[in-house]
Amino acid sequence: MSTPISPEDNAFLIERIRKLTSPRQPIPTGMTPIIPIAKQIKAVMVDVYGTILITGNEPGLTSNTAHERQSLVDALKSIGFHPASVNASRTMSDLYRNIRTDHLEQRKTREIDFPEVDIIEIWKNLPTLQDIDPDLIPRLIVEFVTRVEQPWLMPGLDELLETLNDTDIALGIISNSQFYTPLTLEALSGKSVPEMGFDPDLCFYSYECKAAKPSHYLYTMAAEGLAKRGIAPSQVLYIGNDLLKDVHAAMLVGFNAALFAGDQQSLRLHEDNAAIRDHRPDAVFTHLTQAIQCLGIL
Predict the structure, then answer these.
(1) How many Å separate Cα 191 from the centre of its chain?
(2) CATH topology of domain 7-56+151-294
(3) At residue 49, what are phi and psi to the nearest 5 degrees?
(4) Per-residue pLDDT of the chain (298 residues; tens, 9 = 90+)
(5) How far apart are CA 182 and CA 170, in angstroms?
(6) pTM of the full predicted structure?
(7) Residue 169 CB neighbour total at 10 angstroms
(8) Where are the domains of the chain?
């Protein structure tokens, strides 16, 4: 189970995300869209980071950069902690080392190839942060991550969701994520994830499932959840920006898979990976609204 956070604290964190973010635009990839007409699709599942959110990286995939160190200093100031008493470089190094160690330990005790961490517990155990009130750690993480990632909604998301919400097509999420992921979506959209149109029972977040992409576990869980609705894998369209973690993994469980190539910052083609070099997505979208055309709704 992930570390619980009260509704009041969540509301506060949502407001902080709103104050820390500002509009930004994706960088075009120059790729050519491939938009076949997908028939009999009954569910659309999406990735979050790099697909419906503009962001620099998935959470936990950056390293000890100057931008991260400065973001940590600013985050510490925001919670009233004097940053001079914390070695930012050591903290970042410890953070990523502890994440890797946690992954290794989980692989020894669980049958999961790509486990997910409880990021709050990881931060609480950082040696350089032991003087900080543990109750402030979730806020510190949000202050830090939002500064680092600078998230914003991907253009076309509102139109896509509005269109799909007028149909009988189910909407869900399969994404590497942490507790702040749904909070970020709510902060930027002004709506909770269910209010955006996503079915809570079809939202598979890695921090809740304790498994991360490219593990097949998340996709298998999603396929099982969809099957309970009478939706077969061949009736699912999954949209993601990563050819390995999204497209390849989704197709292995029988989903139709569209590569989202709408932002150069987050497009992941894994061209050096021989296993997927010849793996072709069913569709390529350079704008989210192209999914509407693919589904034959226009």
Answers:
(1) 17
(2) Rossmann fold (3.40.50)
(3) -70, 120
(4) 568 899 999 999 999 999 999 999 999 999 999 999 998 999 999 999 999 999 976 555 556 689 999 999 999 999 999 888 899 999 999 999 999 999 888 887 777 889 999 999 999 999 999 999 999 999 999 999 999 999 999 999 999 999 999 999 999 999 999 999 999 999 999 999 999 999 999 999 999 999 999 889 999 999 999 999 999 999 999 999 999 999 999 999 999 999 999 999 999 999 888 878 777 899 999 999 999 999 998 6
(5) 18
(6) 0.94
(7) 18
(8) 7-56+151-294, 66-149
CB neighbour list of residue 210: distance below 8 Å, 6 or more residues apart: 106, 110, 112, 115, 116
Token couple for 56: 């620099």
Question: Which residue in the block uniquely carries the two structure tokens 């009736």?
Answer: 235
Distance between CA atoms of residues 291 and 282, nearest Å: 12
